Amino acid sequence: MTDLGTPGLDLPDHRGRTRLDQAGRDLTGNPDVVIRDVELLATAWHVLRRTTYDYRHRDGRWTTEQRETYDRGDGATILLYDVSRRTVLLTRQFRYPAYVNGHPDGMLIETAAGLLDDDDPAGAIRRETSEELGITVGELEHVFGVWMSPGSVTERLHFYAAPYTAADRTGPGGGVASEGEDIEPVELDFDDALTAIADGRIADAKTIMLLQWAALTGPFGPTPKTVTPPA
Ligand SMILES: Nc1nc2c(ncn2[C@@H]2O[C@H](COP(=O)(O)OP(=O)(O)O[C@H]3O[C@H](CO)[C@@H](O)[C@H](O)[C@@H]3O)[C@@H](O)[C@H]2O)c(=O)[nH]1
Ligand SMILES: [Mg+2]
């Protein structure tokens, strides 16, 4: 805060954002929730807020609650699969939050994923698939939209799946070097990927969800949907 104002509120923060304390103040969808106040606790790479609201319990009693929310926007992720070769194309990259919380080296195997930024979910996942895996995807299948950590993180993650072949490779992948990304494309046999869930080599929620979807009702399931490659 300065004499001239507060970055993220009435002054642009270092990412040009203002009015970050307005999110949620206009919520009216739930008659048992009345938003009272929104405080901006941190505006760094992403945004941390504390919201005070009145909440009517199931027995009719009203209490005042506070919840902190971490807002990094929404994201999208994709499982790329090749039914004929029975493979999936994943990423491997360093994830500091996992490293600091018990993962032995922080190198996580994941489906390609990224934040939407200013794109719609389908546009964002096409961009991320190209940046991270060097693959230009054709037809996309929307699988589900999920809140991954709804007690504290606002993010909704949009899940997609699409077939890939060697002919879809249009770039090197690897991520955006100027953003510090260093992403290794990893092709796994599908059955090995399922084994990797069981033995802990794959320990990322979105990746496990998409692999299990693929085994249950997706392309490797008992009645796989036929996906026609684009002409
Ligand atoms: N300097 C800096 N850079 C950051 C920070 N946080 C993220 N970045 C940069 O922003 C990039 C974001 O890359 P994306 O590909 O857009 O997102 P992601 O990290 O892969 O996130 C995806 O996966 C997450 C984990 O599963 C998901 O939570 C998220 O929804 C998204 O799908 C990172 O690679 C990194 O370069 C930060 O605190 N500081
Ligand atoms: Mg990413």
TrEMBL record:
Mg(2+) binds at residues 113, 128, 132, 181. Residues 71-210 form the Nudix hydrolase domain. Keywords: Hydrolase, Magnesium, Metal-binding. The keyword Metal-binding applies. CDD domains: NUDIX_GDPMK. A motif (Nudix box) lies at residues 114-135. GO terms for molecular function: hydrolase activity, acting on acid anhydrides, in phosphorus-containing anhydrides; metal ion binding. GO terms for biological process: nucleoside phosphate metabolic process; ribose phosphate metabolic process. GO terms for cellular component: cytosol. Residues 1-26 are annotated as: Disordered. Its cofactor is Mg(2+). Residues 11-24 have a biased composition (Basic and acidic residues). InterPro entries: NDP_pyrophosphatase, NUDIX_hydrolase-like_dom_sf, NUDIX_hydrolase_dom. NCBIfam families: nudix-type nucleoside diphosphatase, YffH/AdpP family. Homodimer. This is Nudix-type nucleoside diphosphatase (YffH/AdpP family). It comes from Paractinoplanes brasiliensis.
